[in-house]
Amino acid sequence: MIESAEVVEAKMVEIKPRNSEVVPWAEQTGPLEQKSVECSVERKKSLRARYSYGIIFLLINLIAWLVRDYGQRVFPQLHYLKACGIGGRDCFCTMGVLRVSLGCFIFFFIIFLTTCKTSKLYEARSTWHSGWWALKFVLLIVSLVIPFFIPSDFVQLYGELARVGAGIFLLLQLISVIEFITWWNNYWMPNERRRQSCFFGLFMSTLFYIASLCGIVVMYSLYAPGPSCTLNIFFITWTAILLVVMMVISLHSKVNRGLLSSGIMASYIVFLCWSAIRSEPATDKCSPQKQESGHVDWTNVLGFLIGICAIVIATFSTGIDSQSFQFRKDEVQLEDDIPYKYGFFHLIFSLGAMYFAMLFISWNLDSSTRKWRIDVGWASTWVKIVNEWFAASIYLWKLIYPVVRQTEVVDHEEPAQQSDDSALP
C-alpha cells in the first residue's frame, strides 16, 4: 500500500504543468490587452474627430456670412461665372448663402452616406470617419465650389427644401433639449440616500422659476410698453400661461414630477419668446432697439458672433445625442463599439447647414438681410414662436403620456379580470 501511494503521488507530480506549459496562456492574454489598447486609441481618435467636424462646420458658415455681406468685394471673380447671372448678383447675398449652404450640405451628407450603420471601431467606415483628412479637405473644397456652377433655379429649389430641413432640425433639437431636461430632473430628484440632491433640486427649481418670472416682467416692460403692442402682449401672456400650466401639471398627484424639470422648461420657453420678439424688425413703439441703419456698433458684432457660436454648439450637442432618438436604450456598450452614431452625427450637421442658411437669410428667399444681422424679420419671429409652442406641447405630452398609458392598461385589464371571474363556478 505504501508503494502504491508513492506511485500515485509520483503520477500526480508528473501531471502538474511545467513552466513551459504556462507560457502559452500568458501569450494568449497579450493580444487581448493589445486589442484593448488599440480600442482605446481608436475611441479617442473618434471623439477628437467630432471637434474637427464642428470647426469645419463653423468655418463654412462664416464663409456663408462673408459671401452674404462682403462677397462682392472679396470674390469679384464670381462676376465671370455664367451661373451667377449679370454682375454676379445670383452668387451674393441670399443666393450666395444658399450656394455655400448647399456645399456644406453636400459635404456632410456624403460623410453621412459613407459612415451610416457603422457599429465597430475597426470597420473601414470608422477609419474614414476619424481619419483621411487630406482627402476630406479636397472633398470639402469640391463641395463648396460645385454649387457656384449650378443654375439659380436649382439653388432656389434647394432653398425651399432647406426650409423643411431646418424645421426637422429644430424638432430634433427640441427633443434633445427635453431629454436633457428629463435626465437632469431624474439626477437631482429627491433620494433617500442623497438628501443633498433634494435640497439642490429645490434650490435650482426655485432659481429657474424666479429667472422665468423676471424674464416675463422684463419683456413686458421693454417690448410691451403700451396697449398698442398687442402682438407682443399676446406672445408674452401666452408664455406666462404655459409656464403656469406646466407647473400645475408637474405638481398634479397623478403626474408628480416635481418642479425642477418644469422650472428648466419654463426658463427655456421664456428664452424662446424673448428670442422671437428680439427678431422682430425694430420699431419705435414696441421695441427698444434702434431703427435699422447702416451703422454697425460693437453690440451688433458681439451678438452676431455669440449667436453663430451658440448655434454651432447646439448643432454639435444634438449630433452627439443619438441615444435620445433610439427606440431601445438598454443596449450594452461593448469595448469595440463606436462611442456615438456617426451617421446620425453627420445627418444633424447636414440639417444644421440648412438651418444656418435660413438664419442668415431670415427664412425669406426673396429679400436679403442687412450686414451683421442674423435671424431678423417677421418670418424668423413666427418660426421661433411656433418653436416655443411646439416645445411646450412636447413637454406637456411627455408629462401626461405615462398617466394616459397607465389608465389605458387598467381599462384593458379590468374586463379581462371580470371575464375570468365570470368563468368561475
Automatic annotation (TrEMBL):
Keyword Glycoprotein: no
Coiled coil (residue ranges): none
Pfam families: Serinc (PF03348)
Main location: membrane
Highest taxon above the source species: Eukaryota
Membrane topology summary: Multi-pass membrane protein
Localization terms from the record: Membrane
A GO CC term attached to the entry: membrane
Residue ranges crossing the lipid bilayer per the database entry: 51-70, 91-112, 132-150, 162-184, 199-223, 230-252, 258-277, 298-320, 340-363
Alphabetical UniProt keywords: Membrane, Transmembrane, Transmembrane helix
UniProt cross-references to PANTHER family, sorted A to Z: SERINC-DOMAIN CONTAINING SERINE AND SPHINGOLIPID BIOSYNTHESIS PROTEIN, SERINE INCORPORATOR
Family to which this protein belongs: Belongs to the TDE1 family.
Protein name, as recorded: Serine incorporator
Source species: Nyssa sinensis
